[in-house]
Design goal:
Strand content: 15-25%
Shape: globular
Order of helices and strands: HHEHEHEEHEHEE
Number of domains: 1
Structural class: alpha/beta
CATH class: Alpha Beta
Number of strands: 7
Helix content: 25-40%
CATH superfamily: Vaccinia Virus protein VP39
Largest sheet: 7 strands, mixed
CATH topology: Rossmann fold
Oligomer: single chain
Length: 195
Amino acid sequence: MNTLDKSYWQNRYIKNEMGWNIGAPSRPLQTYINQLSDKTIKILIPGAGRAYEAEYLWQQGFKQVYVLDFASEALDHFKARVPDFPESQVIIQDFFTLKDQFDLILEQTFFCALTPHLRTHYVQQMHQLLKPDGQLVGLLFNFELTQVGPPFGGDLETYQSLFEPFFKIKTLEPAINSIKERQGKELFFIFEKKS
């Protein structure tokens, strides 16, 4: 298996090898964003890649949006598309070293790109990065966890046992508005930080 480090991801973006990239905001996340009324909340999108959800949030008037990726190539593409996005809100850094707090974190193909042995660390870091009552919202792939990836899959029961120690599970169910290629393969979730 490849070492899924900074150079691995940088090379994937340079070579345009991005099978996960749909070139637009994910429909389930766009639908969720459309229901948010408080545009002052502080939002993080980790492993943002080309950050189409961040672009959509910015266009909708959310000004406290932060994008994080350690592959600068991906975020350069985002900055070219959204030139008025503040440079100070573009974070080129390892997710596991980030120290800040957010009201909302959006998950879109970041969790599935991590090697599975990092999943517990991911959950703990998400818990640390959220303010009290903060929410982690997004999509998880719903297919068998294989040794080869990314993407790495999982199932509802596994995700429940992984997240429940740190989060109140408000929603964890099959996504009803996935793109055709992902229908039946995505779970939409809303997890709230436990104190």
